[in-house]
Amino acid sequence: MIKDLKAREGEVDIVVEITEISPIREFEKFGKAGRVANATAKDDTGEIKLTLWNDDIDKVKVGDKVHIVNGYVGEWQGEKQLSTGKFGKLEIVEQ
Predict the structure, then answer these.
(1) d(CA 38, CA 52)
(2) Are 2 and 46 in contact (CB under 8 A)?
(3) Gap between the terminal Cα atoms of the chain
(4) Region 55-84 average pLDDT
(5) Which of 2, 24, 59, 77 has the fewest CB atoms within 10 Å of its CB?
(6) CA-to-CA distance for 10 and 31, rounded, in angstroms?
(7) Would you say residue 86 has pLDDT above 90?
(8) Is the pLDDT reported for residue 58 higher than 90?
(9) What is the Cα–Cα distance from 20 to 6, expressed in whole angstroms?
């Protein structure tokens, strides 16, 4: 549940609904181009920012239910953010 997530928590396994996706930003890091977009995700207990990277951006649409497997909760400017991190993955449960 979103309300139970803590900053710097790993191995997060959660199903959330996407309510909003911000415009995609492109960047270059170590000579490689990448893309990132922030989404807002919710469940019955609250909302959290979900960071979508590269190919995951194209999989997800507003209204989808997604399963984050082995995710990671980071913190940016005091706000918790969920992402797949280095080792996690995102699966679409329901479109």
Answers:
(1) 6
(2) yes
(3) 20
(4) 96
(5) 77
(6) 28
(7) no
(8) yes
(9) 22
